[in-house]
Amino acid sequence: MPSVVGIVSPGAMGSALGARLRDGGARVVVALEGRSERTRRLAAETGLEDVGSLTALLREASIVLSVVPPETALDAARSLEHESGGARPLVAELNAVSPAKARHVATTLGSVGSDTVDGSISGPPPRNPGTTRIYLSGPRAAEVAALPFEGVERVVVSDVVGDASAVKMCTASVYKGRIAVLAQAFRAAKTHGVVDHVLADLVASGLADADRTGTTLGVASAKAWRYVAEMEEIAETQQAAGLTPDLFRSMAAVYADLAERAVAEMPEDVPDGLPLADVLDRFGERER
Do the beta carbons of residue 54 and residue 8 sit within 8 Å? Predict the structure, then answer.
């Protein structure tokens, strides 16, 4: 029998993961009751099966992937707990959260008899093979790793819930921290009238792409509302490691400011080759 996998929720990342699972032979179900038009469109475009309610999804699926913004990860777990109705699917917590929050999710779901696999996603939504990696940890991590994610690499980190999230918190601190630093550097450069010199220097050092920097910052601004909470999760992770949380609390403030100045509502609406000058002009405005 093919695997039956439920996805909560099928946004850009969740729907792309669902498509890869479907391509690999799994039956993929989603619960679109009360979901946004964008989420419905993404699920339809990737051919995912809508079963209506979360209760119905839990009844159908043996494994559930939770792919939600980090600030709603615990609420999503509580919804799964509340709607379980006796169902006990294995839940893969694939959200960008601290190890401590991953363990909290596992405890919440354990109260209704569901086991949790801690997971984290590195890379973009896997619309193309070889772009995306999923880290997994926990006693049942191998079961999620065995799902037919066509073209997606799976890495089992350990049998400890929280370890996969720790990987994400450390890698994202570099990937998304670097983008926040670039945004701040170019905004300051615009104020001082030296953008061309800064861009040329960073391109020569391999730290920027002359043709892509505008699009990169534009896409980041469209996702910035989501990155705020992720930076807070990273700050908590670093504080738990005995490090100062101040750096990534400041990064959260950077992304909160960018969210108010986003060049587009959705990342897919940011055009390729968007000029850096246009992005910086937008960053100089405050949303009304």
Answer: yes
d(CA 124, CA 200): 27
Q: Cα(97)–Cα(101) distance, rounded to whole angstroms?
A: 6
Q: Which amino acid is at 131?
A: T
Which two three-digit tokens encode residue 19?
Answer: 């498509």
Q: How far apart are CA 261 and CA 250, in angstroms?
A: 17
The tokens 């405005």 sit on which residue? 285
Cα separation, 61 vs 247, in Å, equals 40
HSE-CB of 52 using CA atoms within 13 angstroms: 3
Yes or no: say if 65 and 8 are a contact pair by the CB < 8 Å rule. yes
**Contact (Cβ atoms closer than 8 angstroms) between residue 174 and residue 120:** no
> Is residue 48 within 8 Å of residue 21, measured between CB atoms?
no
> Tokens at residue 285, please?
């405005």
Task: Name residues whose C-beta falls within 8 Å of residue 269's C-beta, 6 or more positions apart in sequence.
Answer: 222
Task: Note down pLDDT in tens along the chain; length 288 residues.
Answer: 457 999 998 889 999 999 999 999 999 999 999 888 989 999 999 989 999 999 999 999 999 999 999 999 999 999 998 887 888 999 999 999 999 999 999 999 999 889 999 999 999 999 999 999 999 999 999 999 999 999 999 999 999 999 999 999 999 999 999 999 999 999 999 999 999 999 999 999 999 999 999 999 999 999 999 999 999 999 999 999 999 999 999 999 999 999 999 999 999 899 999 999 999 999 997 543
Kindly report the pTM of this predicted structure: 0.93
